[in-house]
Write a structure and sequence with these properties.
Chains A, B: Belongs to the class-I pyridoxal-phosphate-dependent aminotransferase family. Two copies of one chain form a homodimer. With about 425 residues, chain A is of the alpha/beta class. Chain A has two domains: about 120 residues, Alpha-Beta Complex (Aspartate Aminotransferase, domain 1), CATH 3.90.1150; about 230 residues, Aspartate Aminotransferase, domain 2 (3-Layer(aba) Sandwich). Helix content of chain A is about 50%, strand content about 15%. Chain A contains 16 helices and 13 strands. Chain A has a seven-stranded mixed sheet, with helices on both faces. The first copy, chain A, has a two-stranded parallel ribbon with strand order 1-12. A two-stranded antiparallel ribbon of chain A has the order 5-6. In chain A, β3, α6 and β4 form a beta-alpha-beta unit. In chain A, α2 crosses α12, α3 crosses α12 and α7 packs parallel to α8. The longest helix of chain A has about 30 residues. Chains A and B meet through α2, α5, α6 and α11 of A and α2, α5, α6 and α11 of B.
Chain lengths: ~425, ~425
């Protein structure tokens, strides 16, 4: 057929991510393992789901009184209210003064998309975004595609092997007035009270707009309140802000798009204006958010017994993560692996840095078929009783190998 | 507190829709009724859900082997494949030649959002969109917000009381080369073979890009194949096109965002390029589409017995719609309501025009508390054995009242 295609100028898009997983899948080695899953894994190597979720999912399916009609653009009111109380605490100023609200979004990408659209329209004079997190975040591209100038910074200091709060302070000092700070798990950074004070003073004087990312409240420390305590500092200092709150990971409902774009304003009137504008954007993006996940979560959060059960399950996950990290550190110590491995247990949450060089990571991937991202940040819940020995022995080998090759290099250099 | 709000310049957004429903909800009259629900209603006035959906929802909740991990950006492969086969038929050229594909989107708004983003980027030289449908469509705003020049046309000819295929032909003749035609339920327009030939020849010679809207395959005629037969004409003529396929209404899963942006290209290679670009947009919009609805639908479509049961439920709905329309017409005839009401039974599907003037609609809303949109297009499944008498009597009254007032006006005019 001689017809020219409408699509003849459309090239194949570059794959943005997932190449490590693809290589892993193609690998024929029976010992291969993947340590970069996004979701929390059980001791048996399955994606974790809070036990209470199974029960409620079944209850919902059995309920003949439920209807499945379209829900409002903003989402289920009860879901948003319950999630806000979880984020801030029932007695927070934000809740009591009725100046916090939210829009149910399709996952956290949806929350960033919606927030970015709002900021693009309503903060025209400042289209600069700083993304500061423990790692490279996918929402960087969302802001970039929308025409923002994006700068990305990582808390992780690969020389000192720690999350560095000073980085945050120096970035705030050099950032232009009125820009946006998208801040990932700052709670893990362990700022001192005086660092907090300094950081907030700089943000305030420069009118920097905070946009927090809360990807898994409760999975960092195992304590829901502890994980979002820092939000209260910003509330008490009179900040207005956005927050992407995802409830996928801490309930184990990864595939249902349960995110919320949270808005905190100075008063209820301002809040309603912002929410009304966000609804117009949401209407064009997806019109009605999906309900299954929201329905499950609301049923759990609104029932004290179920909520207690869920909190207990989170605590167990967090304790298990800490135990895995302790064991990894202990095994490396017993193997006599050179270096201190305290940085492993100093980090909270499922995903933490191993503190390996890119050469060491390459050794693990190529020689040992252990798939680790280039930056060495792995999901510790991928490590379990069945694979911990192979993994720690391989890390030991990688470290020794690179030391040998460095020494060899030094010898070679001195001979030249 | 003297702090100025970041949001001080953000006004309350205008409400775009839903005002009729709001007025209805505020109405205290016990006889009030709303005839404009988007979803198909049962004889008892509840949102319709295909009986087979309940069963599968329960089965899925009971299945311990399922995992709820993130699904790929493009969606569940099996869901997309089953939906494409439903749309085109298993033996369509598109399927056999592997040149049709799709991306799972959050509902049909998501499909238009995604399609519009693609066209914005890859058809830069022509940013004109014609939206041609039975009514004003919400996706007009999606294209408009993205900067397209949008023209909207309705198939409905309120003078002749019919859907007019000639309108389509004349719009195609005056439209500029290379523009986009978003075409709503054209299947209901009953074009003759020669009208089809003329329409497609004009589209082809002007390189107009078709973007079809299939909001509820099977609910127009009760026959799934019949409802999308026209797509095959475009395929056989070598057209490339997009199609928004929604599976919410024909399964009765309204709240789960089950849409697909379908792509038909001239060959597989071109298709893969287009899909890869769409995936990049989807990644920024919501990253992973929600799965509950997709999972239910796939289970039904991939099982011949369940698929048969579902088809039967669709047929029953379509038959019920036709029966309601026949009854409305018959009751108006018995009441001696002036005018021919054949146009009611000449239209297919849940939503059809009553063929009332704006004055008659106003009479129904204000005097009878029957909430009908201004254009008089109602959801016929909102009419049932309990309310049909009140509704038809009220229509009769409205027609007589406006005739009287018109006559009175004529008398007044002649006296002046």
């Amino acid at each position: 057929m001689s017809t020219l295609s409408v699509f003849m100028d459309v090239p194949l898009a570059q794959k943005l991510e997932g190449s490590l997983l693809k290589t892993y899948k193609k690998d024929d080695c029976p010992n291969k393992m993947f340590l970069a899953y996004k979701v929390c894994m059980t001791k048996k190597g399955q994606p974790w789901v809070s036990s209470v979720v199974h029960k409620i999912r079944l209850q919902i399916a059995e309920d003949p009184s439920l209807n499945y009609e379209y829900i409002p653009v903003m989402g289920m009111k009860s879901f948003i209210q319950a999630s806000l109380e979880l984020l801030f605490g029932k007695h927070s100023q934000v809740i009591v003064e009725n100046r916090g609200g939210g829009v149910h979004t399709v996952g956290d990408s949806g929350a960033f998309q919606l927030g970015a659209q709002f900021l693009k329209t309503w903060r025209r004079d400042s289209q600069v975004v700083y993304i500061i997190s423990s790692q490279k975040e996918p929402h960087g591209l969302i802001f970039q595609d929308m025409g923002f100038t994006v700068y990305e910074y990582s808390f992780w200091d690969s020389t000192q092997l720690c999350l560095d709060p000073n980085m945050l302070l120096s970035v705030a000092e050099q950032a232009p007035r009125g820009c946006v700070f998208v801040i990932g798990n700052i709670g893990n950074c362990k700022l001192t009270p005086s660092q907090w004070a300094k950081f907030m003073a700089t943000m305030k004087s420069k009118q920097i707009f905070p946009f927090f990312d809360i990807p898994y409240q409760g999975l960092s420390t195992g304590d829901l309140e502890e994980d979002t305590r820092f939000l209260e500092y910003f509330v008490s200092q009179g900040f207005e802000f956005f927050c992407s709150q995802s409830l996928s990971k801490n309930f184990g409902i990864y595939d249902e798009g349960v995110g919320i774009l949270v808005v905190v304003a100075l008063n209820n009137e301002l809040l309603l204006c912002v929410l009304s504008q966000l609804m117009n954007f949401a209407r064009a993006l997806w019109l009605n958010p999906p309900t299954t996940g929201a329905r499950i979560i609301t049923s759990i959060l609104c029932n004290p017994a179920l909520q207690g059960e869920w909190k207990q399950s989170l605590k167990e996950v967090a304790e298990n993560i800490m135990m895995i990290k302790e064991k990894v550190k202990e095994k490396l110590r017993l193997l006599g692996t050179p270096g201190s491995w305290d940085h492993i247990t100093h980090q909270n949450g499922t995903h933490s840095y191993l503190g390996l060089s890119s050469q060491q990571v390459e050794y693990l991937v190529k020689k040992k078929h252990i798939y680790v991202p280039k930056n060495g940040r792995i999901n510790f819940t991928c490590i379990n009783a069945y694979n911990i020995d192979y993994i720690t022995q391989s890390i030991n080998e990688a470290v020794l190998f690179t030391m040998d090759s460095e020494n060899l290099q030094k010898v070679n250099d001195s001979l030249e």
